[in-house]
Amino acid sequence: MDDNRFTRRTAIAGAAAAAALGSAQVAEAKKRKPHKHRRRALTRRADVIVVGAGLAGLTAAREILFKGKSVIVLEARGRVGGRILNHDIGGGHVTELGAEFVGATQDHINGLIDQLKIERFDTYDTGQNIYYTNGSKFTFSDTLPTGAAPVQLAPEAAVAITQLDQMSTSVPLDAPWTAPNAAEWDSQTLYTWLKNNSASPQFMGVASAATEAIFGAEPREISLLFTLFYIAASGNESNPGTFERNFNTRGGGQAQRIVGGTGLIPARMAQALGRRVRLHSPVTRIVQTRTGVTVHTDKLAYHGKRVIVATPPPIAGRISYEPGLSALRDQLTQRMPMGSLMKAEAVYDKPFWRDQGYTGQAISDVGPVKVTFDNSPPDGSVGVLMGFIGGTEARRLTQKSAADQQAAALQSFANYFGDQAKSPKEFVRFNWTTERWNRGCPVSVLAPGTLLDFGEAIRRPEGRIHWAGTETSTYWNGYMDGAVRSGERAAAEALAG
Ligand SMILES: Cc1cc2nc3c(=O)[nH]c(=O)nc-3n(C[C@H](O)[C@H](O)[C@H](O)COP(=O)(O)OP(=O)(O)OC[C@H]3O[C@@H](n4cnc5c(N)ncnc54)[C@H](O)[C@@H]3O)c2cc1C
To answer: Ligand 1 centroid to 483 CA: how many Å?
Structure first.
């Protein structure tokens, strides 16, 4: 992608970035600012070295700076943001190729957005949702108790969701492996559980559509215990997580979007951190001694008292560690594969589906796109349809030519919103599985046996190494909120060490 867009955008966002650091920090930063004719060599020593400038790494760096300690962030890519990426669609509008939605109980990301003086707006949700099955189209309202799940599948959906919600209440978020039924639940997949509970073929189809969008995976790939943990994590300290809050738009995790796109969040954080963020710096090796850490990139070595690794766990597993990590941690990172997820986005002159009384949200058992949203900018002056292509659908589609991928995705949009959907003025498809520094998304997907036998290593520091990243979060694991929470926790740990 065009990394310079971030540079230009961060320049525009300078004022807001200053607000993000707070006036005291800004005054201090100004004092330390080098004279423009006297170029100082960049220091390679700091109290804490952070690996990865995604939301987790940037949050950790910000916290460390707030506490008056020095920090350097090493980022492999030529841009910040990781799984967050704006895409310019012209006319001053953007759409997001990675994370985009925020919602109720996501207090940490919402708080950060407010501090950065970024605005939110409600996801377009007026009208009827579409349920497409076996070549037939049905409509339903997400104001009904079944929410974003098709009312056509009630009461089956209601029974399954109530049961999953109920089971999830016994899963401790900081130690899911200690749940009373952990062994039983981590010995089966979500697919097995659905089958054992007599799910109909139609319900199995919608369950796949849901897990393809939520995890980039099929129900057969996901441990039941991990599913229950994920549900329990979709809340906060005062509101227990529920499937509804995770999956719904109205009142759920998809309720709101960001004016200017989520890309503004890491861009403004990085702007405030300035030259502490070093791009094009993939970390290859971390060496610990009794007194500190040396963090090696291809070309340079950085020294700190502590290091925070804020990358997805399987990517962290590709770094060399001296001395080696504990066997449990090493084996955990071998068992946390990233989901397979693509986003397809079609841009139209206007959001034509709104005139037909549709929200733009569809759920379907026919691929490749099985879940859609109205991704138009806040003023609706142009229309953007976004579709998730996940799990098996993503793996199959990536093997086709770009033209075939586009045709297949647009056919899905046409199935739901009519033939007009086949003629966008722009089409973008982003495949996260081919991104070297993520190798998939939106989150690591845990198969049976992982949480139970290896889970305890997920956040446990290894000497001077601390682990951040959304996969380490107790609440909103897999989401931006979880990433922010993890950065805050890891920073506190590193500073206490
Ligand atoms: C398609 C998609 C849709 C999503 N939708 C939503 C949504 O609507 N709402 C929501 O809340 N969340 C959503 N998410 C999830 C959200 O994007 C993530 O939870 C969050 O951004 C993760 O942040 P992170 O900092 O933990 O990890 P990352 O964003 O993965 O950051 C890790 C960083 O580390 C860098 N890195 C990796 N290896 C190295 C190395 N060796 N050396 C140096 N740097 C390295 C990477 O380049 C990256 O910048 C979505 C994700 C995707 C991809």
So the answer is: 8
